[in-house]
Amino acid sequence: MKVLITGGAGFIGSNFVYYMLEKHQDYQLICIDKLTYAGNMSTLKKAMESRNFTFYKADIADRQVIDEIFEKERPDVVVNFAAESHVDRSITNPGIFLETNVIGTQVLLEASKKYNVKRYHQVSTDEVYGDLPLERKDLFFTELTPLHTSSPYSASKASADLLTLAYFRTYGFPVTISRCSNNYGPFHFPEKLIPLMIVNALKEKSLPVYGDGKNVRDWLYVEDHCKAIDLIIHKGRVGEIYNVGGHNEKTNLEVVNEIISYLGKGTIRFVTDRAGHDRRYAIDPSKITNELGWFPETSFNKGIKITIDWYIQNQGWWEEILNGTYQEYYQKMYGSKA
Ligand code: NAD
Ligand code: TYD
């Protein structure tokens, strides 16, 4: 079996590459990544040593190049992780989110159809459902919850989902979609909440919490997400959407305080809120649990410790990022926030 993975030099894509190399040792993995600021070849260093792994530096929105790669590699399965993924960046620069997340998805769908890919899997997000009110703890996102996006990021991801479903309905092309809650774990780029707080605390910098810090996210250890996608591409029904999440809701303040307490250091600084900030995400995962037997195996208590320890032990990985264009981003994002 040949599996083409896009965005494999990013956070979840790279974790998926390592998961698949270990779990299916007879599979060939092909990775396509543009290596944007979020993609990192040092993340894939170990994978590059494997005979079962091939890497292409390419843009998923580049029709000609993508066509050439599909013509040469003829993958059986495509899993599309490649995306612009940060909400804050989508607020300041929405255009690239449409290029990669919408056009890129359509280019991949078209190439997958042309070369008779047996399964195209779109990695989506619970953010396509918008947000839930904090005071209605009884409400959860199901696969039937209407799309109701807030940010340019989530709007672009919802558009990609609709295109993916259009390829199923119109052409009978075999697609699946997973909509997952917030992930955390190794190789997470330090612009997102958890790695940013860990890195800042380790560097003795303050921890910038947006607004009142009461926004709620439903956290899932990245390996549990990888397991869900592996199950869906092998056993999921075509044309179906599967929500992935582990009933692990926490306020941002709870998450940040947990990091401070484990590290024994870190000072919170409340900063100006994110524009259009979603209040609460919460997934109902009963469909994937009942149909495919998926359930989260790593508790937050365990996963957050593994993650913090990983950042302590892999300082070289994130220091390299901090020394690049990240400085400029950080200054622009947080420099003027009060
Ligand atoms: P990430 O930003 O860490 O990685 C994205 C990767 O895609 C990078 O390696 C980048 O170089 C690559 N890329 C970007 N534009 C590209 C292009 N035009 N062509 C080829 N490669 C390109 O993102 P992530 O957090 O690993 O998210 C992966 C996927 O999972 C995304 O589709 C995201 O929407 C989805 N998702 C993320 C989360 C989360 O909590 N991080 C939760 C649910 C769903
Ligand atoms: P983030 O990791 O960007 O994921 P998403 O917005 O896609 O859920 O943010 C998670 C939560 O943390 C979100 O409510 C915004 C908040 N946040 C902060 O309070 N401070 C920060 O510096 C960042 C990056 C996020």
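^ thymidine-5'-diphosphate complex. The chain has a mean pLDDT of 97. The chain is about 45% helix and 15% strand.
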